[in-house]
Amino acid sequence: MSWGRGFRDPELAKRIVEKIHEIAPRKDTVKICHVCGTHEWTISHYGIRSLLPENVDVIAGPGCPVCIAPAAEVDEAIEVALRDAVLTCFGDVMRVPGSSMSPLDAKARGADIRVVYSVMDAVKMAEKEPNKEFVFFAIGFETTAPSTAAEILRKPPRNLSFLVSHRLIPPAMELMLGMGDLRIDAFIAPGHVSTIIGLEPYEVFPKAYRMPTIVAGFEPIDILLAIYMALRQIRSRVAFLENEYKRAVRWEGNVRAKELMRRAFNVVDGNWRGLGRIPDSAFALKDEYLEYDAHEKYNVRIRVGRDIPPGCQCHLVIVGKIKPKECPLFMKTCTPQKPVGSCMVGIEGTCRIWAMTKQF
Is 130 helix (H, G, I), strand (E, B) or coil? Predict the structure, then answer.
């Protein structure tokens, strides 16, 4: 590993790594779980795991919104597109597997499915082509949900409706702590999500579960500092909430963004690919905005889908129970060019990141 590659301050990085080695347990294995695809990219791209003691294991949780989108909701989007509506979605959604096909497969069969870079692009398309019906497939965590909410509250063109597939991170983190066969000693909470929701939603982890929890940024130094903070708490046998990402995350988060979400959405139970149904982990449109709900407009409700293809181990990768290279399909029948599971599709998916950084 070249210390000059990617580290803005190699000497500072060296000192943090030395401190990590000083305070890490000598024998017991420590598992630190992050819940962010961008964190995984930084960790993998800069070889951070190779700098850590062998008994400090950083595992990836469900931090990729495309990866955890349930097949049933992808099926709903495809069903709407096959009914002659124009489906708009982000680029990495195109190859997300539904029960029998992906949006890209549906497009090959003649469905009008268009890639957009923001919900505003979908609004502009609907305004430009008023004789067509448009649907925006709104996938994402709390980071992207405010922009969806903002457009809904502005009352977009009536020929635009929404399939809301937004999910909330803290309930998924709490679910992981209830998995009997999954050990976690500390959390590194996602930076982008935390800029929106703030610190308060993470208080439950140190208070109720005595789980050290650190909100971290995305530079290699940020990740190393977060790991050091977590080990320091573990060593002192205390648990509290720390904010490493102070330059961007405040206690209250983004008050305006949270208000937009509160006005547009109800919090409901939601299905997660690989995790099942998690209470209070999803958004649904409030009754006053049901005219923009594609479920109502097209009478489409698919309750059950095939989330995990045969042989795929995405459900274990998503919660950090196995590393991507432990899946029998990884870089054999499942590759970035021909993905089988959702973790190889999303640009923040752990399998895709490991494939692109050649960790196999």
Answer: coil
